């Protein structure tokens, strides 16, 4: 019987099986941010276990509230900052050089095919775009990971999407993942690794693959994952060029991180997405989806472009392409947050920031703040936001607020009209 990519990664990293269906894996990376990690740090200190397994494999960032908005968030940042210094963690990204965790860590080349990655953040599944097993974990697992460099998981069951066809112009990865979540539901991938395969995925660049894997958790998945290929190698080349003589050698090596043709899956879903239209969420669950054409005329108060889902340079380019020469509709606030300083700088150099400013957008530093209703774009009761983020839970961006998740193209078009609208890129 063949093996899935997850099974292959588990096999290579297996340390112990202390109980039936329990696999203790060696970790390649432990990522940390200032919201969940300080709890783990303080508990380790209380247990007289203030140490780390390997300060070169731990990467830390302040990103959820950046800069701090009050004394509490300042204290959380201080705990992470002091701990990183105390433990000699070189790869710590403080205010000014920080970015959204699931954007800056791939950008720095910290994730490779076949890696195991954990973080105290549910959207850690983003990193599966590189052919890695990446999962969000709770405080106890994070503590063990920091201290011992291991984490326990259940048997790696997998489901697979085979996505055929060619997307229409103006249809993007965000539309694809929302459509898929709408098909299988928020519990459709519970406790499973979600493989994304097929011609659609082959044609996606790495940023689009990260968007897909980022929202695997919204269907209940433990991790999203794509097979590494030439595009993966191209993205990582500046970081791996000393490990391989040629890109072709790297591609050949990474082929080991592909599922076998006769691997067993819990379910296999096959879709032809040639006729897929842009979509967005309705209600308060990520699987409540409608076509944009069915939502046209729905008024919004705010448009938000950013986050670990859609705050990368390709997202900003698409949004700016739609916005160029236009203004925000009366009564609509626009907020854009480039996900990392590198992305921000590129957006400045390419003239994208000027387009956003000319349209009337507020351009903020890299931060997660608005996505989870902590800062930089919180909604008031009864307000509606067209957002490129990943969750539309009740109160997610502010108590009593409504969030419609959509692609950057649709969000930009909506900003111009003031109502949910298909972008002119969709034909």
Plain-language structure description:
- The mean pLDDT is 97.
- This protein starts with a helix and ends in a 10-residue tail after the last helix.
- It is an alpha/beta fold and 427 residues long.
- The strands form five sheets. It has a five-stranded parallel sheet, with helices on one face.
- Helices cover 33% and strands 19% of the residues.
Output the radius of gyration: 21 Å
| N-end to C-end Cα span | 44 Å
Binned, the helix content reads 25-40%
Report the sheet-strand fraction. 15-25%
Uncertain parts: none
Task: Provide a count of the helices.
Answer: 16
Mean pLDDT, rounded to whole units? 97
Key terms for this structure?
427 residues; globular; five-stranded parallel β-sheet; 19 strands; 33% helix; alpha/beta
Topology:
Layout: H1 5-13, E1 14-16, E2 22-26, E3 29-33, H2 37-46, E4 58-61, H3 71-86, E5 92-93, H4 101-107, E6 116-119, E7 133-136, H5 139-148, E8 150-154, E9 158-164, H6 173-184, E10 193-197, H7 199-203, H8 206-214, E11 223-226, H9 230-240, H10 247-254, E12 267-272, E13 279-281, E14 289-291, H11 292-295, E15 302-306, H12 307-310, H13 313-323, E16 333-337, H14 341-349, H15 352-359, E17 362-363, E18 384-387, E19 402-405, H16 408-417
Parallel strand pairs: 3-4, 3-6, 4-5, 6-7, 9-10, 9-12, 10-11, 15-16, 15-18, 16-17, 18-19
Antiparallel strand pairs: 1-2, 2-8, 13-14
């Amino acid at each position: 019987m063949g093996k899935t990519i997850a099974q292959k990664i588990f096999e290579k990293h297996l340390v112990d099986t202390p109980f039936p269906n329990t696999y203790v894996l060696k970790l390649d990376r432990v990522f940390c941010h200032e919201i969940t990690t300080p709890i783990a740090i303080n508990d380790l200190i209380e247990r007289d276990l203030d140490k780390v397994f390997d300060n070169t494999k731990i990467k830390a960032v302040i990103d959820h509230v950046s800069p701090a908005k009050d004394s509490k968030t300042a204290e959380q940042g201080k705990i992470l900052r002091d701990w990183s210094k105390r433990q000699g963690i070189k790869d710590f990204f403080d205010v000014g050089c920080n970015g959204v965790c699931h954007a800056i860590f791939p950008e720095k080349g910290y994730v490779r095919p076949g890696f195991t990655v954990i973080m105290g953040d549910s959207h850690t599944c983003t990193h599966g775009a590189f052919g890695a097993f990446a999962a969000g974990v709770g405080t106890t697992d994070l503590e063990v990971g920091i201290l011992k460099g291991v984490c326990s998981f259940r048997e790696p069951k997998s489901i697979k999407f085979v996505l055929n066809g060619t997307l229409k112009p103006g249809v993007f990865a965000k539309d694809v993942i929302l459509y898929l979540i709408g098909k299988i539901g928020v519990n459709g991938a519970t406790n499973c690794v979600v493989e994304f395969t097929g011609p659609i995925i082959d044609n996606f660049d790495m940023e689009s693959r990260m968007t897909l894997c980022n929202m695997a958790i919204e269907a209940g998945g433990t991790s999203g994952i794509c097979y590494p290929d030439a595009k993966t190698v191209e993205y990582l080349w500046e970081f791996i060029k000393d490990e391989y003589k040629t890109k072709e050698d790297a591609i050949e090596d990474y082929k080991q991180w592909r599922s076998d043709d006769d691997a067993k899956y819990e379910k296999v879903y096959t879709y032809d997405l040639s006729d897929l239209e842009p979509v967005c969420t309705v209600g308060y669950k990520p699987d409540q989806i409608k076509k944009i054409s069915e939502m046209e005329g729905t008024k919004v108060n705010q448009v938000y472009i950013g986050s670990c889902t859609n705050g990368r340079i390709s997202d900003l380019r698409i949004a700016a392409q739609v916005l160029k020469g236009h203004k925000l509709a009366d009564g609509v606030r626009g907020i854009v947050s480039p996900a990392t300083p590198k992305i921000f700088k590129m957006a400045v150099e390419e003239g994208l920031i000027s387009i956003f400013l000319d349209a009337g957008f507020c351009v903020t530093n890299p931060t997660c703040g608005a996505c989870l209703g902590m800062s930089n774009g919180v909604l008031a009761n009864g307000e509606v936001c067209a957002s490129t983020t990943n969750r539309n839970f009740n109160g997610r961006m502010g108590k009593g607020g409504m969030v419609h998740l959509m692609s950057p193209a649709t969000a930009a078009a909506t900003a111009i009209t003031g109502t949910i609208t298909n972008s002119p890129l969709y034909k």
